[in-house]
Amino acid sequence: MKCPKCQTENRQDSKFCVNCAEPLVIVAPVDEGFRRSSLKKKYAQGKNPLLAGFLSLLIIGLGQVYNGDFWKGIVMFISAVILFAPTSGIASLLILVWSYRDAREVAKGNESLWK
Ligand SMILES: [Zn+2]
């Protein structure tokens, strides 16, 4: 590899330049496409935030299912059911608020889907 400082050609595994002793940092080529696709978040498209919020108030998690966030909706619904008795409904109420808020934000495209 070439020394970034003096342009001397060094062996590929050299850690320092033979000419000027400059450290040879191996810069891994960043695959932009790969990085973008691994970071890429999915967003709901063409969803009605009012309807999504309404559905979540109707049944916890239904707004998520409507948004295409199937698993998030399932997790919300099951958590709300399981935690209802042990927390005297408090956890379920919090999940309801979360579900309502999340359904609206995801439908608006402000937050990404769980994918
Ligand atoms: Zn050099």
List keywords for this structure.
mainly alpha, 50% helix, binds zinc ion
Summarize the structure in words.
- The chain is mainly alpha-helical and 115 residues long.
- The chain folds into 2 domains: 40 residues, no CATH class; 60 residues.
- The chain contains 5 helices and no strands.
- Helix 2 packs antiparallel against helix 5 and helix 4 runs antiparallel to helix 5.
- The longest helix has 19 residues.
- The two termini are 40 Å apart.
- 24% of the residues are buried.
- Bound molecules: zinc ion.
Helix content: 40-55%
Largest sheet: none
Number of domains: 2
Which H/E pattern describes the elements?
A: HHHHH
Uncertain stretches of 5 or more adjacent residues? none
Oligomer, anyone? single chain
| Percent strand | under 5%
Structural class based on helices, strands and sheet pairing: mainly alpha
Overall pLDDT: 90
| Distance from first to last alpha carbon | 40 Å
